[in-house]
Design brief:
The chain is mainly beta. It is 11% helix and 29% strand.
């Protein structure tokens, strides 16, 4: 299995479609071939220093730097892990272009903040966000799990069909579109392994050992997605 480390040389002042940064696109390519891959109007090597290495289990893409202007990271993600050591732009793990579905498996980890529409139409997999995420998170989410340790933006969960969203506190929800909060213990939490960083391990510990509150919706579309937060949050 392979690790691709892409270290940002400089932050762009304009939006770039990062959906081509995908393990299936990188697999089998040499360093020079990866550097010559198109990303927007430029080549990957114009923006990133590229290092290729080996690892024991699963493919992993490591993105290092402030990727706030790189959007649709992980749009086609199916397996392995994308790890962003910094912020990421809009539509992380979300559907791109005319596609009906976003990521369909694997894990995306964002140590910093994420822009709007995180997990839009995601089908499977996990998205972990250590900071805040923008508005309309989990919009039209089909399945999968999103964990956000920071603040959750407004108008999130619109059209949510299924899947699970874990927040540090229950966000403000649209009136009438979600069930009343129920308190319980989240028994499945012990089956999920958080990324090995202090922020995620501390965040997830709350779901393993303390009571949680949960709601379901979006009832406007017959959705059964769940939103879970610590009861003390």
């Amino acid at each position: 299995m392979t690790t691709w480390t892409l270290r940002l040389k400089q932050s762009p002042e304009f939006a770039i479609d990062g959906s081509s940064i995908d393990a299936r696109e990188l697999a089998g390519k040499s360093k020079s071939m990866i550097e010559s891959m198109k990303i927007g109007a430029d080549c990957l090597g114009d923006w990133f220093d590229v290092v290729i290495g080996d690892r024991g289990e699963g493919d992993r893409i490591e993105l290092i730097g402030d990727l706030s202007n790189f959007h649709h990271i992980g749009a086609n993600h199916q397996r392995g892990e994308i790890h962003v050591d910094g912020n990421v732009g809009d539509f992380v793990g979300a559907a791109v272009g005319g596609r009906r579905l976003g990521m369909t498996g694997g894990r995306i980890v964002v140590v910093g903040n994420a822009g709007p529409y995180a997990g839009h139409r995601m089908r499977r997999g996990e998205i972990w966000i250590g900071g805040d995420c923008g508005r309309l998170a989990a919009a039209h989410m089909v399945a999968g799990s999103i964990m956000v340790a920071g603040q959750v933006g407004a108008d999130s969960f619109v059209g949510m069909q299924r899947g699970s969203f874990f927040a540090s506190r229950l966000p403000k929800l649209a009136s009438g579109r979600f069930t009343r909060p129920l308190e319980s213990f989240y028994l499945l939490a012990s089956l999920i392994r958080p990324p090995k960083t202090e922020v995620f391990e501390s965040f997830w510990k709350q779901f393993r050992i303390t009571p949680v509150i949960s709601v379901r919706g979006d009832r406007a579309v017959g959705g059964q997605g769940e939103i879970v937060a610590p009861a003390a949050g």
